[in-house]
Design goal:
Blueprint: E1 2-6, E2 9-12, E3 28-31, H1 33-50, E4 63-67, H2 72-84, E5 107-110, H3 114-124, E6 131-133, E7 150-152, H4 157-170, E8 175-181, H5 184-199, E9 203-210, H6 216-227, E10 233-237, H7 240-252, E11 259-262, H8 270-274, E12 285-288, H9 297-302, H10 313-323, H11 360-380, H12 395-402, E13 406-408, E14 414-416, E15 426-434, E16 440-449, E17 458-460, E18 487-491, E19 500-504, E20 509-510, E21 520-521, E22 526-528, E23 535-537, E24 539-541, H13 548-573, H14 578-582, H15 585-601, H16 611-645, H17 658-682, E25 686-690, E26 697-703, H18 707-730, H19 741-764, H20 768-799, H21 806-818
Parallel strand pairs: 1-4, 1-5, 5-6, 6-7, 8-9, 8-10, 10-11, 11-12, 24-26
Antiparallel strand pairs: 2-3, 12-15, 13-14, 15-16, 16-17, 18-19, 20-21, 22-23, 25-26
Helix pairs in contact: 1-11, 2-3, 4-5, 11-12, 13-15, 13-20, 15-16, 15-20, 16-17, 16-18, 17-18, 18-19, 19-20
């Protein structure tokens, strides 16, 4: 014996209770044609098995089917009636065979909704009576600790929730509203959808619930939430009975143009697609159980004449509603308003909800459930030729065997249950598309298969889809527009993560994807472009010969070198003249040579830094300048010694003759060479990419290596220059014709001023200007020495030759004696 629990009525009448009388029986209303189709599908499967010689030969299956009215309390009551054989219930049909005595059922098929199934499975769980549902999808029912005897032939909502979230994400909808039936199916399904949606970056602007029997005020709150929302997509986890109530209310408020995303609970329900106000759902898209066709079932369901043989009041009500007629009744006044039912009416040519076979996939689930019980019994009874005479197994044994069954139906569908009592999850993606006759077509536009890898589970076909208002354009439903590359999302305070501002990436950071949540910092040698969408290699900066400043400094350096050469040529040409001979010609030529090197060493500071150029520029600069200052110092000492030599009895010149002058220059220069060698040995200068000073540029410069070495070189030059300045200052008042002290004083004054000014300028100058400042200091001090020491002599040699005589020199000597 198989039991069945179906909602032949979709609701019941609310009656005010005063708690003084025993409550009356539930007053069921709103006849549900779908339940009659489901009952016919169950009976068809049972009759097919009874007429089969291969499955349960010699065994006849009977059935008892009850009406639960969609009520949890009523569902529990009829479940207990099926379990203990209590006849004081509301049977919809008598067994096919003589089953008048109380009989315990081996399994129960039903209910259609999750909440009644949860209650029924909870009550029957301790008795281990199998409960197999064809339409209860709540993921909570997979909990075998709470519902050990529950199985189903429809996938769990856990998979449907994932599929819905992926479907919403596929079309770019990140800002959606959610409406659910206020029962376990809707609440648990929406909770699972919300969890999946959050992982995919989808936000729910609102999430509201109601039940079809709720007061009107609660329904109005749902309507108000939709009216106040900015989202254009509504995800609904609802049964078709609750959706009918909501759609009528939305139609009354003219709330159309929303994109509905539905579940298998209503997306392929023909009654929903034809009821008043169904245009509210235009272009709906959702998930449905894959289409199925069972040979002979359609004809069996539509053969309603056998239903009239039982004389049951429920089928009388069904017949009258189906054919819009009335059987003769004792109630007065019934005649005249309705045509009389004969019981021989024919459905041929009629179009109504009962004749619509769009839910054949659901009926196929009932068919699978009945056959699962039959195959379990077949194995338990060890049926070969016949099963007759075998002892009837207890429900617990049947339950354990049902969990193990694996078979194929005559249509080729494989039937089995996993460890949670669930079948494999597979859904068709359905789109409501209008037909030429004004009806709605349920067009399969894709597939969701949970058995394949995650990236291939959702497939949407490349076919035209119809959306809200029968538009061909995919609707947009976002809280904030997508952030283009070059920006990042910043969540608005107090709002969901889908509501954000698009902030440009900071300098040096990029985002090359739409809707990036972070900006990525470029590598240290790269910098973001103007649009902040890609990293570009930074420009390198160094003082080059091609740019104006580099070319100008190069020209000045070469000019100084040429001028030094010209002065050297003049001195060489007039080397035997008194003015050249009187000013220590040997030191003068050495000084001119060192000045030429000073001018040329500035060229090593121009161009891309390399290892050899970095070491050469500072050492060449340090050594040539020390050589230059040593020569000037030697000339200054010669002037002072010459002055001392003119005094009576002085023989000082023998202590500072030409040999001593050469040795002093060599000694001073060797000290600088030693400093440079130590510097290059311990920590030499090296090429360095300075990325700190500028964000968007790399400064190619020479790092000092050892700062002590650099400042030791400069300090030694400064020490010699200061000594030279002091000595020249002391000799400044000696006769002009005999010494260069006055000119050396001026040259050292310029030299010291330039290099004292150089220090703060060098430290504060950015990038290539640091090098330019150093070159300028070298050239300025070199020109100072050249102009102050040699130009006056060249002036006399070339323009005042009359003063370049021995007589003039002797006049200076007499003047010196007069001192």
């Amino acid at each position: 014996m198989l039991g069945g629990i179906l909602s032949f009525h979709s609701s019941w009448r609310n009656v005010d209770r005063d708690y003084t009388d025993v409550p009356s029986a539930l007053l069921c209303e709103s006849l549900n044609f779908r339940a009659f189709q489901e009952a016919q599908a169950m009976i068809f499967a049972i009759e097919e098995i009874n007429n089969s010689s291969a499955l349960l030969p010699g065994i006849t299956l009977g059935y008892k089917i009850y009406d639960s009215c969609g009520s949890i309390a009523r569902g529990v009551r009829v479940a207990l009636a099926l379990a203990n054989g209590n006849k004081d219930s509301f049977p919809a049909s008598s067994p096919a065979s003589n089953c008048s005595r109380p009989a315990q059922v081996q399994a129960i098929l039903g209910e259609s909704s999750s909440s009644p199934c949860m209650a029924i499975a909870t009550v029957l769980g301790p008795f281990h009576i199998p409960v197999i549902s064809h339409f209860a999808t709540c993921a909570c029912l997979s909990d075998k600790a709470r519902y050990p005897s529950f199985l189903r032939t429809i996938p769990s909502d856990l998979y449907q929730s994932r599929a819905l979230a992926q479907l919403v994400k596929h079309f770019g909808w990140t800002w959606v509203g959610a409406i659910r039936t206020d029962d376990d199916y809707g609440n648990n399904g929406m909770a699972a959808f919300r969890e999946q949606a959050e992982q995919l970056g989808i936000c729910l602007e609102y999430s509201v619930s109601f039940f079809r029997n709720d007061p009107r005020e609660k329904l109005q709150r749902v309507v108000n939430s939709i009216q106040a929302s900015s989202s254009r997509v509504i995800v609904s986890f609802m049964s078709y009975m609750d959706l009918e109530v909501l759609v009528r209310e939305l139609d009354r408020h003219n709330l159309t143009g929303y994109q509905w995303v539905g579940t298998e609970g209503w997306i392929t329900d023909s009654y929903t697609a034809t009821m008043e106000g169904h245009h509210v759902l235009d272009g709906a898209i959702g998930l449905a159980i894959p289409k199925a066709e069972v040979t002979g079932m359609r004809e069996f369901i539509l053969d309603v004449k056998p239903l009239n043989t039982s004389g049951n009041l429920l089928f009388t009500e069904f017949w009258e509603a189906l054919f819009d007629c009335r059987f003769q009744r004792a109630a007065s006044g019934a005649e005249g308003r309705w045509r009389e039912c004969t019981g021989q009416e024919d459905l041929t040519g009629m179009q109504n909800t009962f004749t619509d076979m769009s839910l054949m996939a659901i009926f196929n689930n009932i068919y699978k459930g009945v056959h699962a019980v039959a195959h379990a019994l077949h194995r338990l009874l060890h049926c070969e030729q016949t099963c007759a005479g075998r002892m009837q197994p207890d429900p617990h044994t049947i339950l354990e065997e049902i969990k193990k069954v694996r078979f194929e139906t005559k249509e080729g569908d494989e039937v089995y249950f996993n460890e949670n009592g669930d079948p494999a999850a597979k859904y068709d993606i359905i789109n409501w598309q209008p037909r030429a006759d004004g009806s709605v077509g349920f067009v399969v536009v894709g597939l969701y298969d949970a058995s394949v890898p995650a990236h291939r589970q959702l497939t949407v076909r490349n076919i035209p889809l119809v959306w809200a208002h029968n538009s061909r354009q995919v609707p947009v439903s976002v809280c904030s527009e997508r952030c283009p590359p070059g920006t990042r999302k910043a969540v608005q305070k107090g709002k969901p993560v889908c509501c954000y501002d698009c902030l440009p990436c900071a300098e040096g950071e990029i985002s090359n994807q739409t809707d990036s949540i972070t900006c990525v910092k470029c590598h240290s040698e790269f910098w973001s472009n103007a649009r902040r969408e890609s990293c570009e290699k930074k420009d390198t900066e160094f003082l080059s010969y091609e740019e104006v400043m580099g070319a100008l400094l190069t020209s000045v350096s070469l000019l100084g070198t040429c001028m030094t050469g010209v002065v050297g040529f003049i001195f060489f040409r007039y080397k035997n003249t008194p003015i050249v001979r009187a000013n220590n010609s040997e030191l003068s030529f050495l000084l001119l040579f060192s000045l030429a090197l000073c001018f040329l060493c500035s060229l090593t500071f121009i161009g891309r830094p390399s290892e050899w150029s970095c070491m050469l520029r500072h050492t060449a600069f340090g050594i040539t300048f020390v050589l230059c200052i040593s020569c000037v110092l030697g000339k200054t000492i010669v002037v002072l010694m010459a002055f001392r030599a003119t005094l009576p009895g002085s023989d000082v010149m023998k202590w500072f003759g030409p040999l001593q002058q050469r040795l002093s220059v060599l000694a001073f220069t060797l000290i600088q060479v030693l400093i440079c060698v130590l510097w290059l040995t311990i920590s030499p200068p090296f090429p360095f990419k300075n990325m700190e000073h500028y964000n968007d540029r790399i400064i190619l410069e020479c790092a000092l290596g050892s700062a002590v070495g650099f400042w030791a070189v400069l300090g030694y030059i400064g020490l010699l220059a200061l000594l030279c300045f002091v000595l020249a200052f002391l000799a400044r008042k000696l006769p002009d014709n005999f010494n260069e002290a006055k000119f050396i004083t001026f040259s050292m004054l310029i030299f010291c001023a330039v290099w004292i000014t150089f220090i703060p300028a060098y430290v504060s100058s950015p990038g290539k200007f640091t090098v330019a400042v150093e070159i300028f200091a070298i050239l300025a001090s070199s020109f100072g020495l050249l102009f102050c020491i040699f130009i006056p002599k060249c002036y006399i040699i070339l323009l005042k030759p009359k003063k370049n005589t021995r007589k003039s020199m002797m006049m200076g000597k007499k003047a010196l004696k007069s001192l």
